[in-house]
Amino acid sequence: MGILGLSKLIADAAPHAIKESEIKSYFGRKVAIDASMSLYQFLIAVRSEGQQLVSADGETTSHLMGTFYRTIRLIENGIKPVFVFDGKPPQLKSGELEKRAERREEAQKELDKATEAGDATLMDKFNRRLVKVEKKHANECKELLKLMGVPYVEAPCEAEAQCAALVRAGKVFASATEDMDALTFGTSVLLRHLTFSEARKMPIQEFHLDKVLEGLGMNQAEFIDLCILLGCDYCPSIRGVGPKRAIELLQKHKTIENLLEKLDKSKYQIPEDWGYQEARKLFLNPEVADPNTIELKWGEPDENGLVEYLCGDRNFSEERVRNGAKKLAKAKGGSTQGRLDGFFTVLSTTPAKRKAEDKKKNPAKKSKGNSSFKGKPK
Amino acid sequence: MFEARLHQSSFLLKILEAIKELLNEATFQCTQNGIQLQAMDTSHVSLISLFLSQGGFDNYKCDRNISLGINLSSMLKIMKCAGSDDILTIKNHEEPDSITFIFESQSYDKVSNYQLRLMNLEHEHLDIPETDYACVMKMPSSEFARIFKMLLQFGETVEISCSKEGVKFSTSGDLGSANIKLAPNNTTDSDKAVFIEIQEPVVATFAIRYLTLFAKATPLALRVQLSLMPDSPLLVEYQIGDKGHLKYYLAPKVDD
Predict the structure, then answer these.
(1) Which residues does A250 contact at the CB level (< 8 Å), separation at least 6?
(2) Taking chain A, what is the end-to-end CA distance rounded to the nearest angstrom?
(3) Where is the Proliferating cell nuclear antigen PCNA N-terminal domain (chain B) (predicted)?
(4) Which of B132, B181, B138 is nearest to B158 (CA)?
């Protein structure tokens, strides 16, 4: 689920850290995409009449549809995507995963009830809550990406952490995920909404870690502690300490250790055997593959291979798949457009002034993050 | 306070036409010396650097530096409301959040007044290093516009190769290919002459679409200057008489 309420907090405390832009602006950029997150999006969103798309023998194909067409859209816009798949979940996540399993069970119960009552809206709602990205989905997507000539990386552990490592090593420009904890793992740039459908007209949100830290007046270690206080996937947080309190406390005490000494224990209940130190360690030194050993190569699409893989049993239209393959080949062909950023350096940035009156004029810029999308349950 | 007056409002319209395809909104920085604008298009492939000297205006007053964030398509709408030889006065003082355009007809019998709300824009100032270009050529701006209009029908990417013999523009696409060669000439008509100064030969490729967008500046100047360096952005420069200049930079295409 990422970090609870982090995007809202950044929008309030460090508004300059967020930029909104069109997909066009990422022209020529290499971007690491959190594959589990995008697969989950596709399983939820790529539907026809509320049902997932299926092949002739009833197997889901929504994820393949999404991966195929949305990757083409990225590539057509000059973006070079690399997909990063999750490995095994970290030990610390077991608590969170249990909770998610419980919620899934509840949803199943609700779904049964709704089915009995014949309530279609509720059925649809709970059906979506039951969506889970399985190993099989990921493997099918890897197969597809290979045919498309798009590279992918298998992370030993969390995909967001691997994305962040790729960004830090300068292998890619940004991590694309909805999970805000990519920032906690230290990605310098985080993109949200990159793999959303074109029809939603959702601008891409770009978060810059350096500006987040500047706005909060913290360093990375303090920021990690802040995220732990807000609520992460790896340990519980202190009840009664909300985002406002968390910032105040950390700005004053700098570390969770100092803060625990000063905190009024009768007012706030510290979780038993609180594993915040392990969580911190995980954020600081996550298990990732060394980015320097990873070679990213974008190759030619295999048109016939794609047709064979997607058409037939999986019911994709051959004409559309061939068209897609041609688009990929065209985008790949020839030289790529360079960006001026590499030649000219930014001397100074004059940020837009944030006055009370421009709130009215420009409400889109003040978006508080998209709270309706909460990230992946596993 | 800021106030600038132009006897021919159409001059500003031409400037806008030359930048509006690349920029949706921009910050005009007004100082004692004149008006400056520097901005990249959204995809960060090209950069526009415009300078309008205060001497180019018929009246110019700016007692402190101000930044005017303007939506260019809104400004274009206003500029199109003017008659071609109307006298234009631009003002920003009583209300700091807006800018006023006043058009007076030459006979002073009609005055129209438009107000445009200013925007708060983030503005990045880029450092453009002084470059000693390997190849500099000057040609009539209409020739430049024609060449790329033609090439655009054949392909998306142009290869520009300069040598002592001249400069060659070539492209290819589904239709076939196109090659245009310009050799330096010794015509006495300085408006039509083609000059090429070469220190070393350069070959570079660029997106034709951007070059055709730069050519929208053709009505502003009779001559255009192109400067090239290997593996560097191309500079396309229009000197607007003694009124200022309009420079476009374009990032090259690179092979992976």
Answers:
(1) A218, A222, A225, A226, A229, A259
(2) 9
(3) 1-123
(4) B181
Mean pLDDT per 10-residue section of chain A, whose length is 378 residues: 85 89 86 92 82 82 91 91 92 85 89 86 83 88 94 94 94 93 94 87 92 92 93 87 88 88 81 88 92 91 93 89 91 78 81 48 41 43
Helix/strand number for chain B, H first, E second: 4, 20
List chain B residues with CB under 8 Å of A296.
none
Q: A348 touching B, CB under 8 A?
A: yes
pTM: 0.77
The residue of chain B nearest to residue A27, with distances taken between CA atoms, is: B43
Q: Please say whether the beta carbons of A62 and A42 come within 8 A.
A: yes
Chain B residues within an 8 Å CB radius of A335: 157, 205, 253-256
Question: Sign of torsion, CA A354 A174 A73 A192?
Answer: negative
Residues in chain A: 378
Q: DSSP assignment of A115-164, as one string?
A: HHHT-HHHHHHHHHHT----HHHHHHHHHHHHHHT--EEE-SS-HHHHHH
Q: Express each pLDDT in B110-162 by its tens digit.
A: 999 999 999 988 888 888 888 899 999 999 999 999 999 999 999 989 999 99
Secondary structure class of B52 (helix, strand, coil)? strand
Q: How far is CA A45 from CA A37, A52, A68, A197, A377, in A?
A: 12, 8, 14, 9, 15
